[in-house]
Amino acid sequence: MNLFEKIQSQGHEQVVFCNNPQTGLRAVIALHSTVLGPAIGGIRIFPYASEQEAIDDVLRLSKAMTYKASLAGLNLGGGNAVIIGDSGVKSEALFRSFGRYIQSLNGRFIGGADMSTNVEDINNIHLETEWVLGSSVNKGGSGNPAPMTAFGVYHGIRACLEIVFGNPNVRGKKIAIQGVGAVGFEVARYLHEAGAKLLYYDISSRHLKRAMEHFPGTVIESSFYKTDCDVLAPCAVGGIINQRTIPRIQAPIIAGAANNQLEEESIDAQLLKEKGILYATDYAVNAGGLISVSAELTGHSKQKTLEDVANIFDSVKKIFNLSEQENISTVAAADKIAKNRIQSIATLAGFFL
Ligand code: NAD
Question: Where are the extended beta strands (E) located within the chain?
Answer without folding.
Answer: 14-20, 25-33, 39-46, 77-84, 109-113, 174-178, 197-201, 218-219, 231-234, 253-254, 278-279
